[in-house]
TrEMBL record:
The lineage of its organism: Bacteria, Pseudomonadati, Pseudomonadota, Gammaproteobacteria, Chromatiales. Catalyzes the reversible hydration of fumarate to (S)-malate. It holds the Pfam family Fumerase. Residues 288-490 form the Fe-S hydro-lyase tartrate dehydratase beta-type catalytic domain. Residues 11-284 form the Fe-S hydro-lyase tartrate dehydratase alpha-type catalytic domain. The keyword Metal-binding applies. Keywords: 4Fe-4S, Iron, Iron-sulfur, Lyase, Metal-binding. Its EC number is 4.2.1.2. One of its GO terms (biological process) is generation of precursor metabolites and energy. This is Fumarate hydratase class I.
Amino acid sequence: MTTIRENDFVQSIADALQFISYYHPSDYIQSLAAAYEAEESPAARDAMAQILYNSRMCAEGHRPICQDTGMVVVFLKIGMEVRWETQSGIQAMVDEGVRRAYGHPDNVLRASMVTPPIGARKNTGDNTPAIVHMELVPGDKVEVKLAAKGGGSENKSKFTILNPSDSLVDWVLKTVPTMGAGWCPPGMLGIGIGGSAEKAMLMAKEALMETIDIHELKARGPSDPIEELRLELYEKVNALGIGAQGLGGLTTVLDVKIHSYPTHAASLPVALIPNCAATRHLEFTLDGSGPVTLDPPSLEDWPAIVWEADSSAKRVNLDSVTGEDIATWQPGDRILLSGKLLTGRDAAHQRIIDLLNRGEPLPDGVDLTNRFIYYVGPVDPVRDEVVGPAGPTTSTRMDKFTEQMLSQTGLIGMVGKAERGPAAIEAIKRHGAVYLMAVGGAAYLVAKAIKGSRLVAFEDLGMEAIREFEVEDMPVTVAVDSRGDSVHQSGPAKWRSKIGLIPVEVVA
């Protein structure tokens, strides 16, 4: 009989969440570094350089890899000989660990959980509750797998029930392009096959916590049908040409993980869940001897990559830029932004639209005439920081607001991550605006370009409030120009054609 004390369990959860907020798993860094060396697309290569440089900065500075510090997901295998020294339930203890981790004064993490899920959607303030899955197993130990799952990748989760005779590979190849780039590739794909609907989704999620080993698998060769499927999907998904951040390139996924389970004779449930470039997960075992001890990785695990802005990048003064200026920009142009930049994402956009619909003025300081808005929900600052990690959020969530924002506020530019949908692109073209893309997964690097920050409006929205940033040489790429040309359409198409493995009709 092993006794697990409440504080040992709680502190282990807290320490692990802090650890994964700023340390990438070494297997991810090694795999991404290899992909960077092999990449032929300049845009994708630059994006990977930013991610790798950002990762090292976070490891050194103990600050979050991404501003979205994730929804906590925990898988527990609890030995049936374990005795708990506590008056609390498992969920309550996990939540206390989350609370400690996300409120740590030296590395405050962003609280993203809201309740209820419909209606008020008020931020819980401490990132609780966690999503907890438990299994009773033989033994006298507690095995813990945990992850901090970002919304950008979680929102791209897919599920279907195929006919038993259908091609799973064809479904994946048709589905992955519909996910866009909001999940911040290059990352991993977790796939669950079989069981029931909920079992398939759980298997896909847990599969993402495994070590990247696709290159070892390629070297030794597959030993069963699942390994054969992993290799086939790895090659064919990368041949889609989506590339880092959806810009087009050779590497979209670093590994494909598959879990399977027996299923009904009439069914083939399939779940697909991507993991983003932040890739935050960890596993450990508690045996009653105390809280877990986590050994920091060596900085030698990181490649000696120092990202610097492209010498051909255009420097743009946000305080004086005009519609005539942005009309000269081309998709793929590298831009360095300086000046004042307003922020705002889902909740702030909804409030602005509500005010416009009622004919009411916007709050003081929210004058969007000839301005740019940055889709971001930053981490709170610590110590001498102006702002915490402040990378972009997925821009497609703002698509439904774009036409009204451009037509009624004087806005001329937007900054976010990933692609824009057809309606937003049409609105950008109609109004001669522009959409710029910052790299998702490089939040600490972006924050270093922010020299000032002040709250402007909607303070009650927390991380979703409107702020005004003073930025200096903030790196972005023209993703949709004023003529409606999108690099997220042209880039992958170019590289898919160049790789030449996937017929056009497969992804049409």
